[in-house]
Amino acid sequence: MIQRCNNPNAKNYNNYGGRGITVCSEWTDFSRFLEDMGEKPKGCSIERKNNNAGYCPENCIWASKKEQANNRRGNILIDLNGVRYTVAQFAERFHLDAQQLYAKLNQHRSKNNPNQMNLF
Predict the structure, then answer these.
(1) In this structure, are 6 and 26 located in the same domain?
(2) Three-state DSSP class for residue 4
(3) Which of 17, 54, 65, 117 could form a disulfide with 5 if both were Cys (CB 3.0 to 4.6 A apart)?
(4) Are residues 84 and 63 part of one domain?
(5) Average pLDDT over residues 8-37
(6) Same-domain pairing of 18 and 39
(7) Residue 48 pairs with which residues in a beta bridge?
(8) What is the phi/psi pair of residue 73, to 5°?
(9) Which stretches does DSSP call E strand in 18-110?
(10) What CA–CA distance (Å, rounded) separates 115 from 120?
């Protein structure tokens, strides 16, 4: 977390520090991070609730890979009757094949916002 936000030589720096994502100053002390976040649960890693904001107690949770996949900034979003879904969530909720749904949606994505499609 600290490396990808502060080290321009880090592998993913351009997706983090390079676009302004920071780590709060308190978390440079690991004991303070541990006090705020607690021990890492099995199968989880740190997740920012808002992908455009930094790492701090108010914006971070422990999340599974599935939860994190549904919070990626590049996800295609589907709004249905006031509920927002990622394609994976929509497919799971309505028992559809996610890959077929991706293919169909890619044919009809909004020209104004390619990461969002309003069905109704």
Answers:
(1) yes
(2) helix
(3) 17
(4) no
(5) 96
(6) yes
(7) 60
(8) -70, -20
(9) 44-48, 60-64, 77-80, 83-86
(10) 16
Range of the domain at 31: 2-69
Tokens of 26: 């308190």
Q: What's the pLDDT tens digit per position in 60-78?
A: 999 988 888 777 777 778 8
Confidence class for position 120, pLDDT limits 50, 70, 90: very low
43 HSE (CA, 13 A, CB side): 4
DSSP letter at 23 equals B
Tally of domains within the chain: 2
Place of tokens 């994190």: 68
- Give buried/exposed letters for 28-49 (b at 16+ CB in 10 A, else e): eeeeebeeeeeeeeeeeeebbe
pLDDT at 68: 82
